[in-house]
Amino acid sequence: MKKTLYIIFTLLFTTPFLAQQNQLWRGFFSYAEITDIAATPIRVFATSENAVFSKSLINNELKTTTSINGFKAETITAMHFSVTRNKTFVGNDNGLLLVVNEADGSVFNVVDIVNKPSIAPNKKKINHLYENDGKLYISCDFGLCVYNLATSEFGDTYFIGPAGQEVEVLQTAVYNGFIYAVTRNNGIRRASVANPNLVDFTQWQEFDSGSWLGVVTLNNRLMLANSNNRIYSYTNAAIQEVYTTVQPAVDFKSFNDRLVYTSANHVYVFDPAMVLLSHITQIPDITTTFTCGVAAGNNIFIGTKDKGMFSTSVNNSMTFENNTPSGPVRNNIFSLKKAPSALWAVYGDYNRYYNPYPLDAYGISKFVEGTGWSLIPYEELSGAKSLSRIAVNPNNENQLYVSSYYSGLLKIENNALVILYTQLNTGTTGLESLPPPNNNDIRVNGPAFDRRGNIWMTNSLVAKGLKVLKADNQWASYDLTNVIANPESENYAPLIVDKNNTKWIPSLNNGLIGFNENYGNKFIVIKTGTDSGNLPDNDVRTVAVDTRNQLWIGTNKGLRILPSVDRFLTETTLTTNAIIILDDDLAQELFYQQVILDIAVDGSNNKWVSIAGGGVFQVSPNGQSVLHKFTKENSPLPSNNVNDIEIDGVTGEVFFATDKGLVSFQGTATKANENLNNVYVFPNPVRPGFEGEVNISGLIDKANVKITDIEGNLVFETTSQGGTVMWDTRAFGKYKVASGVYMIFISSEDGSETKVKKVMIIR
Questions:
Q1: Does position 153 have pLDDT exceeding 90, yes or no?
Q2: How confident is the model at residue 317 (pLDDT cuts 50, 70, 90)?
Q3: pLDDT at 264 > cutoff 80
Q4: Cα–Cα nearest to 337, from 417, 381, 415, 401
Q5: Which residues form the PorZ N-terminal beta-propeller domain (predicted)?
């Protein structure tokens, strides 16, 4: 597909869509990596990688601000809460400044730094935000910017190097009429804050040439943190050492009458006289490093690298409370799996060429509606790293198998590890490791159940690359030596098993491999070339079977369709087809030359397609119509890199695992039911002010749905595709119907089943 098509689709779904449809989205973000903390007398604010949360010091209420609220962060690097404006200012590593109005939750993007053409993109990072006299001083990797809080406009930019060059400014503070700027390599520079000509670099003078990390004010003194692990004070006379710490500061803050010095493993809290009130070196039962800290009254709040925000009191620093909202371990989720009552997530990944290094060790996360997130920690998984995919037993959702692209296959039952399968405990027909000296490296991917309860998976970089753990706990292997070239060098994406028990195995270099042991161990390989399968590329990233038994194949360079998986049973070669669409009356190939990361099929046989760097498309069953395109720019999607898509067939909810967080869209396509016994209508009644659609679910496929008023006048009619029909409470899409009771008549395609429901509309 040409880039012009992407532009057209983006214009179709712009900002008004986001404003109207956010109620259809949910966010499941990680708040474990705390980047900054700010305090007020009644509330403490914290930023994670790309979200903001706060906690009331009065009633302990937690509040989150994420992409669902229009908060589209990159990677957060600094934060400031303005008491005078009741706004939270958030700086990012790309220079983006986000302003959250806490009164109404609105978010304003300030892109002046992002759009500065004279500054290199890698020099736009915002390091610190400091408010003084109606101005926000923004410390960046290139210098210092000023933002007017009253007018919400940028003012001057100061390049304060000795020769007017760019210098990294780490932190600023105003003291006794001077603004002090701590720089990375040029010591502390200062200038008169009232000087109207601070854009002139000569107005900035060297205050001290030492190696400094931070500067704040406390009790009418200027407090300085040096890289030599010492704290100094300055009172217009001389710089004096006042305290020696153990490690260099990673964060240096003052609030009211408390100074907090935070290093990787130490938090020091001082009173105005620099009397040490508290020294924290560890949070009980938590292994982590500290990133920031602030003291508000008698409370100390500490941000950590990967465990969230904790609080304790100045007088009792042995008792800690976790103040972190529920969420997954991290935002970069590699793979999801939806079970009937839970959503599972793993984080271990591999790169474009299936290299899992550096190895990840993050455990397995589980989300249960109404309960929140829990974790099976890495420490309880026998050292299994780089967990890549999940398969849930269709007959027992409490049992799942998780592939590790380094350690083998894990069997999990009732939230605990039962066994880690490796080359050491699966026999001569089981899993295989790489040759010595890498004989601990066992690259398993894509476990999938067949209808007999057997679990199929791939084992990369070995000759017998296809493995099965049978329902009787016996292992079998299938040799690919005579099927593909160099199987000992081949890697595989997750496989699927179709209704005929055919396994479809995507490979990096050898196209798509079809296999069925029930047909004499039959193999068919689909590759590039008109005589070999017509794939656009031999690097196949994902496959999915739709409800019409078509096989959708996503490759590194586009999409192909196998018209029916049944052809594998009767033919010896298979040819795939491109989907051709019309764009401005010109025939174009759908997703031409695009890297397709994932394909998922919803209950109405629509396809959800993830494009590398391009967000997610929902296309019609035949691919001829684009129903939705979601990107970071036009939706709550926090990133255009969607690693995995998972669909709840019962509710129609579509989950998107991105490299910046997990979100979901409440789709309307649910799986069709076998009968009409479980039809339900929601909401019912429809109350005044409701702007959404009435959801009629639990339908069979191709059910006829008619809605009439109480007198029998028809106002709506449609045929279901899947298990759900939506009604916008309008009479044939024209005008909103009046208050009253409306009858819903449902019948199967052949008229053998019927159901009648009612819905009340209250205007």
A1: yes
A2: low
A3: yes
A4: 401
A5: 44-205
